[in-house]
Amino acid sequence: MCNHYHNLPEALATIEAWKEYVSHFDEAPPTDVWPKRKGVIARITDGERRLEALQWGVPLTMKGKRPGTTVTKRITNVRNLKSNFWRSMLERPENRCLVPFTQFAEPKPNAGREEVWFTISDADVSAFAGIWRETEEGPAYAFLTCDPNPLVKPIHPKAMPVILQPEDYDRWLEGDAAEAFQEPFPSQLMSIVP
């Protein structure tokens, strides 16, 4: 599962699709993003498009194995869109966000901590389809996953992040039918980072 990605913040300011968001961002965005750390998302807040730094991983408290105990997991990747927990966020466009990235990693099979990095071939910055919510610890986000495309599948056969085409950014943030976006990004438009 994708639990590591890079973001080159200087690239955001050069891409026309992101200029509107960047103008409202005051802090230096993190470039190496891991779960439980802050990452940058783009969302519409009070009618304005803006970048904000939120924690990556939506906390979900569940019953523990021992009676009377609970365990809190951080959900970074969302696959089960039928779950009531995610459904409420998906149905409300105000809970959707774009998660900008320049590269994402999947663990290399049987290689310990080694990772394989993927990028979109003709884009400096791309975006995952994300959702966010307020939590007791502050706002947090996760992004959707889908079946892997032929490039990612040999590395991670179960899933890959949902990557949006730039022309779909507005529709993801403001439109209906969020499930329609749960499709693999075309592998011919991606490459493995050497």
UniProtKB/TrEMBL annotation:
<keyword id="KW-0238">DNA-binding</keyword>
<keyword id="KW-0190">Covalent protein-DNA linkage</keyword>
<dbReference type="InterPro" id="IPR003738">
    <property type="entry name" value="SRAP"/>
</dbReference>
<keyword id="KW-0456">Lyase</keyword>
<comment type="similarity">
    <text>Belongs to the SOS response-associated peptidase family.</text>
</comment>
<keyword id="KW-0378">Hydrolase</keyword>
<dbReference type="GO" id="GO:0008233">
    <property type="term" value="F:peptidase activity"/>
</dbReference>
<dbReference type="GO" id="GO:0006508">
    <property type="term" value="P:proteolysis"/>
</dbReference>
<keyword id="KW-0645">Protease</keyword>
<dbReference type="InterPro" id="IPR036590">
    <property type="entry name" value="SRAP-like"/>
</dbReference>
<keyword id="KW-0227">DNA damage</keyword>
<dbReference type="GO" id="GO:0016829">
    <property type="term" value="F:lyase activity"/>
</dbReference>
<dbReference type="GO" id="GO:0106300">
    <property type="term" value="P:protein-DNA covalent cross-linking repair"/>
</dbReference>
<protein>
    <recommendedName>
        <fullName>Abasic site processing protein</fullName>
        <ecNumber>3.4.-.-</ecNumber>
    </recommendedName>
</protein>
<dbReference type="Pfam" id="PF02586">
    <property type="entry name" value="SRAP"/>
</dbReference>
<dbReference type="GO" id="GO:0003697">
    <property type="term" value="F:single-stranded DNA binding"/>
</dbReference>
